[in-house]
Model the fold of this input.
Amino acid sequence: MSDEPAVGLVVTGIGTVGADGFDFRTALGRHGYKYLPAASQYFLAAAKRALAQAGPDALAAVGPEERGAAVGTNSAAVALHHTMDRTVTATGAGDLSPVTAPYFSINLFGSRLATEHDLKGFNLTFTSPRVAGLEALQTGQRALATGRARRLLAGATEEALPAVEPGADTSEAGAVALVLEPEPAARGRGAAALGRVGVRSFFLPPKAAASAEGAERAAALLRDALDALGHRPDQPLTVTAVLDGSPVGEAMAAALDEKALGGRALAGKPERVPAGAGTLEPVARVAAALGAPEGHPHAVVTAAAEGNAAVCLVTPGAQLDALSGTEASAQLNAPTGVEASAVPDAPAGADAGAGDEQPMSGRRRASDR
Done:
């Protein structure tokens, strides 16, 4: 492995997969994927698309120990767990399928990805409510910055919730995957830098969010996150907020104006997107922002009722091309991995473990695998 840490990471590949009409035979191949859980199929297909865009040498340029993966999910295993529970209570554990039983562990949903692409640097799974996909980007980039690897596959995957589960009416199903690598490496092999993403996660206690000072607390956390990510207040900023109607969501929404954000120049009214029951939509919005033609920074903000929150600052490739000299260097090397937390012992929610579609809030799986 190279002695130099991977800094100045850029996105060189984006893959998105929706559940509607998905057929693993077409997306992955006719053999070897039939018994994989749907969420694993989705992420494998999204990663395949992202790697195809990044180029065949995106991973081949480095050894297996220099490749890492990080995936976020909230509901990948829920439907499978329901099926297992029914089998155990009806006829006994001896009737569990040996090919699906190992997936009782959420950490195994990314294992096939690591096997297929020889990802031996690290393989992480994150499960924090709603922010898990952004945490996968954050922690994966931090691992590269500290020299754990030189290439990263990161994103989110979800499977539709069973009808009896809370939030089933806003289920998410599909996957988004991003390929990240050092900007000099991308430039050296002639790959296009689609943009840069930086994530800060933090925690807003629900009781604090529901108080009279809730919006003020949320605004302070958002300002700190944007400052840490290298956003200058004089740069026009587009904002997309993936939020629910909980006190935490409402406090975050109330904090999204120019005055509350320290005088930042917002490029239009912040877009508020109803949050689904999962972690997919925020990452899908990040992927969409990377392809935005306007070429100025875009903040994707999300939060869960439990208090977990995150901000992803997207710098599209068009803006990276427009930056020059010192300014470009500062944008590319802004810190991406240090937690900004209102509570020192805030829950981390991380488990260590083995395209062209639009954002997909509320999509349900309709295909018969």
